[in-house]
Write a structure and sequence with these properties.
The N and C termini lie far apart (66 Å). Helix content is 44%, strand content 14%. The relative contact order is 0.08. The chain is elongated, with a radius of gyration of 23 Å. The protein has an 8-stranded mixed β-sheet, covered by helices on one side. Mean pLDDT is 94; it is low at 259-264. The chain is built from 9 helices and 8 strands. The protein has 264 residues and is α/β, with parallel strands linked by helices. It has helices spanning 13-24, 37-46, 71-78, 136-147, 158-187, 197-207, 219-222, 225-234, 239-256; strands at 5-9, 28-33, 50-52, 64-67, 87-90, 106-112, 129-133, 153-155.
């Protein structure tokens, strides 16, 4: 396997995990860049690399550059960096790879589909990594790089990545917010979120082997409107949560309503 010399542009959650994974796979992290010097220094120390917060001091001797920055700043940053002949990738699902054209003629996307937080270990062997490349040479390089840290490497164009990202927001970001709502309600009665962990684990376990639609339970799915009304009355004290409950309940009722027969 080819070992790469990599510069990581960014020092946030994705940059943190990718830098560690690349280093663990035997690649060399030459430098970490971040506009926040302390963040660049922290990650650089973790992976034994140089660091800078000055684009004019960016190491231009690497074989591959990974731009792991937030979506809003990616295109602006791409206008400030010029690395002709170098392979440059970004890690965004919702930015076209062509955003990197000002940086280099060799560009692509390296998108790991996972929620990431600094300091929380992840098993990258199970994390799907989606790649897209400007040409075959770049594609082969990215496929090899991805395979060095993950056992699940797939190709996905911009439209597929955008769909993946939206689906992930529903499955992860929105779900995590619902856990927060649950925790807030439980605390009102002196209860802890841990009481729901067996329920949460069983919910996840079921969808490992079943279609989520087929294993849905609860009052909205059953059409138990008396219980729904009681819940809504309780949530009058939490108007924002009540609105979310109502929207999701209406969606569930719509999804599971029985079709009307032509002869009825």
């Amino acid at each position: 396997m080819t070992k790469h010399e990599i510069v990581v542009i960014g020092a946030g959650n994705v940059a943190y995990h990718l830098a560690h994974q690349f280093k663990n796979a035997g690649h060399s992290i030459l430098q970490i860049f971040s506009r926040t010097e302390a963040a660049a220094e922290f990650l650089a120390e973790e992976v034994q690399a140089a660091f800078t917060d000055d684009l004019e001091k960016l190491n231009t001797g690497a074989s591959l550059y990974v731009m792991a920055v937030n979506d809003d700043s990616l295109e602006e940053l791409a206008e400030e960096i010029y690395l002709p002949g170098k392979i440059v990738v970004h890690t965004s699902a919702i930015v076209p790879m062509e955003a990197l054209e000002p940086v280099s003629e060799k560009f692509g996307v390296f998108y790991p589909l996972q929620t990431m937080t600094k300091g929380h270990d992840l098993d990258f062997s199970e994390i799907p990594i989606f790649i897209e490349a400007e040409d075959e040479e770049v594609r082969k390089t990215l496929a090899q790089l991805a395979a060095s840290i993950s056992g699940n490497v797939q190709e996905a164009d911009f439209q597929k990545r955008k769909t993946l990202h939206i689906a992930a927001v529903f499955a992860n970001n929105f779900t995590n917010h619902l856990y927060h709502i649950s925790e807030t309600l439980l605390k009102c009665e002196g209860l802890q979120l841990e009481i729901l962990l067996p329920l949460i684990k069983e919910t996840v376990r079921k969808i490992n082997r079943n279609n989520p639609f087929d294993v849905q339970t609860g009052p909205a799915k059953r059409g138990d409107m008396k219980t729904v009304e009681e819940h809504l009355e309780y949530l009058n004290e939490f108007p924002e949560f009540r609105e979310i409950y109502l929207v999701l309940t209406e969606s569930l009722i719509s999804a599971y309503k029985k079709p009307i027969r032509d002869d009825e």
